[in-house]
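Task: fold both queries, return tokens.
Query 1:
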Amino acid sequence: MPAAALLFLVLLPPQLVDRTKEIQSPPAAEQQLSDEKRADIFMARKMYREAIEKYQFAIQAEPGSAPLYNKLGVAYHQLHLFPAAKRNYERAIRLDKTFSRPVNNLGTVYHAERSYKKAAKTYRRALKLSPDVASIHSNLGTAYFSRGNYKKATEEFLVALQLDPRVFEARGRSGSLLMERSVEDRAKYHFFMARAYASAGIFDRALLNLRRAFEDGYRKPRKVLEDPVFAPLLDNVEFQALVGVGPRQAAR
């Protein structure tokens, strides 16, 4: 073989070496993941159908696991397949009657189906098991709001905020669902949320919800101005702009 050709073979750039097998083989750590862990990853990526398949495999290996049935219910729930979600929540509850998460999640199904009375009853049942879970108080408040019981709704929202000031900023978690705020009267809902935040002393969120209330058509600025829970905001320029008064008028 000519010397020039031999030199070319020896100096072949390393990036041209065939690494197909390395690319196709997943990392060793990933190969060792359980079906449940793989399903959890799919849930985080919002790949709910793939998660359902993996949770079902996991349940085959551990058929008495209430947490697995709850997670499977959440995966169906995220796809709005409510009958399947309900069946799995109920199975989880039968397996572990002290497990509050599937009870709460079952309440969110009833709420989505507009069975607000049944939803509220189910949330109260969940609170008997876990009285200090902010998301359940939040969900119960939303059920009360949907039934027109604004006093009880505000009370539950305030309890939720005292337990977790960020509860209303949370999104669905793999274990315990926070009810979507798909209420019909969004303007009134944001007003009551503003009251709850103001009562808890979280004034930036109170202002945000007041702004949303007015954007959605709330037309009672005088009621806002005269409400004692908003008294600490009377000197706030943004608050004055929202209710349409100047500093002197707000101070009256």
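Query 1 returned. Query 2:
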Amino acid sequence: MAEQDFDAATKAFSKAIQGLLRPQIRAMIAQGITAPALYRMIKQIYVDVADEEFRLDDQRSTDSRISMLTGVHRRDVRAMRNADRSDREAAEQKVTTIASVLGHWLADPDLIDAEGQPVPLPRSAKTGQSFETLVQMVSRDIRPRTVLDELVRQNLVALDEDTGMVRVRSDAFIGPGDQDQKVFFFAENVGDHISAAVDNLLADDPRFMERAVFYNRLRSASVDEIEAIARELGTDALVRLNRLANERQASDKEDPDGTERFRFGVFFYREDEASEKPGSDDSGDGNQT
């Protein structure tokens, strides 16, 4: 590639990166993350990515090689590679356990009724299904009472103290209300979406589904209608795939080849373009990979 072509491609990609970062910077400022704090995080991520994904012959890279690849000083590379991450891992385990309990409850044929709705469960029972057995199916590292208290606190389930029955609230279908879970899934969902897009960008033959439908020049009422249908279709797709994946996992998890994971997501975004700056793109509609 000629030098001028390389510069043009780099400039175009830099502009794309700026577009990706703008909404994230908005979230960072709202959460009190300053530019110096972001720079420190970026240095850590540069080191992590270089260490994990740019190895030679599957050999762990030296501090010097990572420093050369990233521009991060070797002293900082050494400190970042030895950083303690146990607190983050513990928090991730808690969030994933809670999400897995709900996911299993919404998918297991023994835990849903004829209409596909999750059935109420006794908090505990000597025989048969209960909330405690549900949690123990997912993980034995966290006490069922701890999981129940957290789900009740987030208004995702309701506990009838008189009968001891636990039921899933309708809010559980909307998404997590807890800030820690919001942050966790913000990273996981957006991270996997961007990973799919990056793999498609770098590959000669894109292999991940990553498309969107986009239109403009629409009235607010029209977008309200479209968004309502998008939510219905998206929820149906998520519920259907959750049940299928739960069924497959029951047989695959004991198989030595059961090493893969997936994430399927849906999103809908809208904004009023009347406030955009003059000269902004006002193109029509279409599909985009």
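Both queries returned. Flag for query 2: Confidence is low (pLDDT under 50) at residues 278-283.
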